[in-house]
């Protein structure tokens, strides 16, 4: 019965791998990561095959999923992994479909299996229990717990504080904007940190904030047109710097910034490098979220036989989050940003994780 069900799902999952736009977004002991440095001569255990399940967009989203893919590519090269199996979620799919994608990888002999995005939380917890000998990792979720589940999470609020400070330092109108993909707690961490950083620079600054969709509707991560419309509204209302945490919708934010002669702040990857050529010049900085480091670390630990279940936090202290400097647009304020960074690392500044 299970074999038949998995077989029926295979075609649908592979079709989902053709999606090219969008992004998600945002048990055991909790530890702080020490990101891996340099290469490794270690080889994966005999027979090891990596299965990776992306959220909406997969490779090519210029942000969240691409960062995870970079970690996979590094691991494949440096750890001598055989070709991985990469599958991608489709817009509007159910949790049952995500379960089948993970189940397909596990029944096909892939071990470990990496799920990219908090939308896999329930499916990972369920499928991992069915395959206790398979190691699972999930990015951006600490709720799915089990003896064979590793949770790779980030201090998005800390990195967002730094780009919020950058926005306020660069704004000439004392008015900045935040565009969130979906109003869920993970994305609210980005908003909370951004607002705190901007207020640290100028307590009287105006901060406009809007989300593109509300759960259970997740199209806000895959709607560039709506991202553009919302950002245009913010710019028309006086914002001259707009930060997005909206996955594939961020390309629309960049288009609005370009047309409105404003500046934009990217997310997850260094979007001054990854955004389309026509708009990348408006990217002042990006909040870097090192999914590549987290995915590589997990796969390296699997190769070494040292995978541990539970939560690993990639925060500012271990450079799990940061801000980009491509293009030199924040060079004149870098000293101030580094000062804020050190205060966060030392604990002098406690960055809020919620907007309340």
Strand order of the largest sheet: 1-12-6-5-4-2-3
Q: CATH homologous superfamily name of the largest domain?
A: Response regulator
* Order of helix and strand elements from N to C terminus: HEEHEHEHEEHEHEHEHEHEHEEH
Q: How many independent structural domains?
A: 2
Gyration radius from CA atoms, angstroms: 20 Å
Largest sheet descriptor: 7 strands, parallel
Mean pLDDT: 88
- Contiguous helical run count: 11
Oligomer: single chain
Report helical residue fraction.
25-40%
CA-based shape: globular
The low-confidence runs, each spanning 5 or more residues with pLDDT under 50, are 1-28, 35-47
Structural classification: alpha/beta
Distance between the termini: 48 Å
CATH topology of the largest domain: Rossmann fold
Name the CATH class of the largest domain.
Alpha Beta
Written account of the structure:
- The protein is α/β, with parallel strands linked by helices and 356 residues long.
- It has two domains: 182 residues, Rossmann fold, CATH 3.40.50.2300; 159 residues, Response regulator (Rossmann fold).
- Helix content is 39%, strand content 19%.
- It contains eleven helices and 13 strands.
- The strands form two sheets. A seven-stranded parallel sheet has the order 1-12-6-5-4-2-3, with helices on both faces. It has a six-stranded mixed sheet with strand order 8-7-9-10-11-13, with helices on both faces.
- Helix 4 links the parallel strand 4 and strand 5.
- It starts with a helix and ends in a 10-residue tail after the last helix.
- 55% of the residues are buried.
């Amino acid at each position: 019965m299970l074999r038949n069900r998995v077989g029926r799902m295979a075609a649908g999952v592979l079709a989902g791998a053709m999606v090219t736009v969008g992004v998600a977004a945002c048990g055991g002991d909790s530890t702080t990561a020490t990101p891996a440095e340099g290469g490794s001569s270690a080889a994966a255990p005999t027979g090891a095959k990596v299965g990776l399940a992306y959220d909406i967009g997969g490779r090519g989203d210029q942000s969240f999923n691409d960062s995870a893919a970079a970690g996979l590519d590094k691991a494949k090269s440096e750890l001598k992994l055989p070709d991985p199996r990469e599958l991608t979620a489709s817009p509007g799919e159910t949790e049952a479909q995500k379960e089948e994608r993970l189940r397909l990888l596990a029944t096909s002999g892939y071990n470990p299996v990496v799920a990219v995005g908090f939308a896999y939380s329930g499916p990972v917890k369920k499928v991992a229990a069915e395959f206790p000998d398979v190691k699972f990792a999930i990015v951006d979720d600490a709720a799915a717990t089990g003896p064979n589940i590793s949770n790779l999470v980030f201090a998005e609020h800390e990195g967002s504080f730094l780009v919020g400070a950058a926005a306020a330092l660069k704004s000439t109108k004392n008015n900045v904007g935040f565009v969130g993909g979906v109003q869920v707690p993970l994305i609210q961490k980005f908003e909370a940190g951004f607002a705190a950083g901007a207020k640290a620079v100028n307590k009287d600054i105006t901060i406009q904030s809007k989300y593109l969709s509300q759960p259970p509707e997740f199209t806000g991560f895959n709607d560039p047109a709506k991202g553009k419309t919302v950002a245009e509204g913010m710019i028309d209302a006086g914002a001259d710097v707009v930060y997005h945490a909206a996955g594939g919708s961020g390309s629309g934010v960049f288009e609005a910034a370009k047309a409105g002669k404003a500046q934009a702040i990217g997310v997850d990857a260094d979007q001054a490098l990854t955004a389309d050529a026509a708009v990348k010049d408006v990217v002042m900085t990006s909040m870097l979220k090192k999914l590549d480091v987290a995915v590589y670390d997990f796969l390296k630990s699997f190769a070494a036989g040292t995978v541990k279940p539970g939560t690993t936090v990639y925060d500012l202290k271990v450079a799990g989050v940061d801000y980009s400097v491509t293009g030199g647009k924040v060079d004149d304020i870098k000293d101030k940003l580094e000062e804020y960074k050190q205060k966060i690392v030392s604990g002098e500044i406690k960055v809020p994780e919620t907007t309340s």
